[in-house]
Design a protein that fits this description.
12 helices, 3 domains, 3-stranded antiparallel beta sheet, RVT-Znf, about 280 residues, binds zinc ion, Reverse transcriptase zinc-binding domain-containing protein, RNase_H-like_EbsB-rel, about 45% helix, mainly alpha
Length: about 280
């Protein structure tokens, strides 16, 4: 703290993420406080560091034991890569410029698209102008304030579990929500790494296609779990008519090396193997 009762943020700003610094800055400190500053471990009642308290927090975050958020992500019925993305986003491990800055991979934490000071995952998925107008078009007016006011994790949790609370059409909202945040992240990457790529399809209709894909794959998974034996039976070698031989072939190519190979097996209607060849 300096003489005016303000935080000397420059002393620790390199150690903490921007969002935490903002939270610290909102805490008003009294210049008349009788005590000197001292470090305090907030996870024990006496303020002293204990390994077991840090361990339990770490394990809880890692294995999803302490917060219902992690269970909600595990239970997400959408495409696996989207579920993984949501998990990483909530752990703060998606490589936004804020995270890259923290890992010393860049010195520039700005959003390269709109110039916002710090490109956080929340900025990309919720507050970046394209994302903002997308959500505004979907969320009911009376819930719009709450939708944008929740913390990032609360926002993810609410949308994965409270289907339809925020939006005008809540049918399988969690699937559409997951698809949309996944697309927002992908399009951000394409703007940076493939600036010439054009998208003719709006994010919303692309998101609805992914939502449909999730729905179809869920139905398919349910069906295939009911009749696994039938699915296995249909993939097998079938003998040719009596007196005939059957040739089965396969091939592979390794494009960058220019190498290719193919082979085949000829079998009679008795299943014997009169000839095997490869090139
Ligand atoms: Zn931006």
């Amino acid at each position: 703290m300096d003489g005016d009762g303000q935080w000397r943020c420059h002393r620790f700003e390199s150690l903490l993420p921007y969002a935490i610094l903002l939270r610290i800055a909102t805490v008003k400190i009294s210049s008349n406080a009788p005590m000197q500053d001292f470090p305090r471990w907030n996870l024990t009642s006496h303020g002293q560091f204990r390994v077991h308290s840090a361990y339990s927090v770490r394990m809880g975050v890692q294995f999803g034991l302490t917060e219902p958020l992690w269970k909600a992500i595990v239970d997400f019925k959408g495409i696996l890569r989207i579920r993984t993305f949501i998990w990483l986003a909530c752990l703060g491990k998606v490589l936004t410029n804020e995270v890259r800055c923290r890992r010393r991979m860049t010195l520039d934490s700005r959003c390269h698209t709109c110039g916002f000071e710090v490109e956080t995952i929340d900025h990309i998925l919720r507050r970046y102008p394209v994302a903002y107008s997308l959500w505004c078009s979907l969320v009911c007016l009376e819930h719009l304030g709450q939708f944008f006011h929740l913390s990032f994790k609360e926002w993810i949790f609410a949308n994965l579990t409270n289907s339809g609370f925020f939006v005008k059409d809540g049918t399988e909202w969690e699937l559409l929500f997951g698809s949309l945040i996944w697309l927002l992240w992908n399009r951000r990457n394409e703007r940076i790494f493939e600036p010439d790529k054009m998208h003719w399809e709006p994010i919303l209709s692309h998101g609805k296609r992914l939502q449909q894909e999730c729905r179809s794959s869920t139905i398919l998974a349910r069906q295939s779990s009911v009749v696994p034996a039938l699915a296995r039976d249909s993939i097998r070698w079938e003998k040719p008519p009596e007196g005939w031989c059957k040739l089965n072939t396969d091939g592979a190519v390794k494009g960058e090396l220019g190498m290719a190979s193919c082979g085949g097996v000829i079998r009679s209607d008795q299943g014997t193997e009169p000839a095997i060849g490869s090139q």
